[in-house]
Automatic annotation (TrEMBL):
<keyword id="KW-0472">Membrane</keyword>
<keyword id="KW-0560">Oxidoreductase</keyword>
<feature type="transmembrane region" description="Helical">
    <location>
        <begin position="78"/>
        <end position="97"/>
    </location>
</feature>
<dbReference type="InterPro" id="IPR006694">
    <property type="entry name" value="Fatty_acid_hydroxylase"/>
</dbReference>
<dbReference type="InterPro" id="IPR051689">
    <property type="entry name" value="Sterol_desaturase/TMEM195"/>
</dbReference>
<dbReference type="Pfam" id="PF04116">
    <property type="entry name" value="FA_hydroxylase"/>
</dbReference>
<keyword id="KW-0812">Transmembrane</keyword>
<keyword id="KW-0443">Lipid metabolism</keyword>
<dbReference type="GO" id="GO:0016491">
    <property type="term" value="F:oxidoreductase activity"/>
</dbReference>
<protein>
    <submittedName>
        <fullName>Sterol desaturase family protein</fullName>
        <ecNumber>1.-.-.-</ecNumber>
    </submittedName>
</protein>
<keyword id="KW-1133">Transmembrane helix</keyword>
<feature type="transmembrane region" description="Helical">
    <location>
        <begin position="129"/>
        <end position="148"/>
    </location>
</feature>
<feature type="domain" description="Fatty acid hydroxylase">
    <location>
        <begin position="84"/>
        <end position="217"/>
    </location>
</feature>
<feature type="transmembrane region" description="Helical">
    <location>
        <begin position="154"/>
        <end position="173"/>
    </location>
</feature>
């Protein structure tokens, strides 16, 4: 099997788990955890993402190969030592990719797709962006080639990390005791998907929660404050194509309409909330200018 097809090969397992979770909630009288339009939108996003991902691997695997052949810094150990190092290095890079995806609007334009549903269930894991290759997700794995890992190893570990994360998208599993100290768990990832001020922009872990604890982004889910899911700026659509492009459209429209390079750079690469402030301010400035000079506006 080609390693790029790993997630597709696991699709039957994922679909069986989604069906099982749907039944679980129905039997407990909480069928509303799932809705068909939302779940079908998630499935559509998964298919689009898979297509784009396969194309992107075709382009970036030669790049990883080039970096591996010409710029690798050393030869990692074989066997379990090398595998452990690969896993740790990729999980560390994933943490920074994920953190940057929440703090840099260019990356958020793609990653917001994953967060834009107001529901959270196993099918939410399918919500992935078609435009991750454009955002530059692939660049975060390039250091693994410099570290001496082959492109096939890089692709395999990236996809295994994503496969693990499927299982943390559920409200059916409570806190898991000592596992909360080691791994990204359903409870940890629920708070990551929440937009409540106390939870937002925390818990970026892929597999190990170590990185959040180390770099100060860890938050505990509290029974006193149930998670509210979704994005601060709601998308209100279940059309997978629209969900994929809406934040890119907003970002480009606001950047093109903005005055000054500082504002434009903030709108593209600032934190999403800073970009929001700039966009609001620029729109207000325009209205003020138009009110002062109605003749100009008419022309
Ligand atoms: Zn996220
Ligand atoms: Zn998630």
């Amino acid at each position: 099997m080609q390693v790029e097809l790993l997630l597709l090969a696991l699709a039957p397992v994922f679909l069986a788990c989604v069906a099982g979770e749907m039944l679980y909630w129905r039997r407990r009288g909480r069928a509303e955890v799932y809705s068909w339009p939302d779940t079908l939108c998630n499935a559509g996003l998964a298919l689009l993402h898979q297509g784009a991902d396969k194309l992107a691997w075709l382009l970036v695997i030669p790049l990883y190969q080039y970096a591996y052949q010409h710029y690798r810094l050393w030869q990692p150990p074989g066997g379990w030592g090398g595998t452990l190092l690969l896993f740790l290095a990729q999980d560390f890079l994933y943490y920074w990719f994920h953190r940057a995806s929440h703090r840099v609007r260019w990356l958020w334009a793609a990653h917001s797709v994953h967060h834009s549903s107001t529901r959270l269930n196993l099918s939410t894991a399918f919500r992935q962006s078609l435009l991750y290759p454009l955002a530059g997700m692939w660049a975060f794995w390039l250091p693994l080639a410099w570290l001496g890992f082959t492109p096939q190893q890089v692709v395999a570990v990236v996809l295994l990390n994503l496969a693990f994360q499927f299982f943390v998208h559920t409200q059916a599993v409570p806190r898991l005791g000592w596992l909360e100290y080691l791994f990204n768990t359903p409870s940890i990832h629920r708070s990551h998907h929440a937009l409540n001020p106390r939870y937002i922009d925390h818990n970026y872990a892929g597999v190990l929660v170590l990185w959040d604890r180390l770099f100060g982004s860890y938050v505990v889910e509290s029974a006193d404050e149930p998670c509210r899911y979704g994005t601060v700026k709601p998308v209100n659509s279940v059309n997978p194509l629209w969900v994929n492009v809406v934040e890119w459209r907003d970002m480009l429209r606001e950047t093109l309409a903005a005055r000054g390079w500082r504002a434009r750079l903030t709108l593209l690469f600032g934190a999403p909330e800073a970009a929001e402030r700039v966009a609001t301010q620029q729109a207000a400035d325009k209205l003020t200018a138009a009110a002062k000079n109605p003749g100009c506006q008419a022309s």
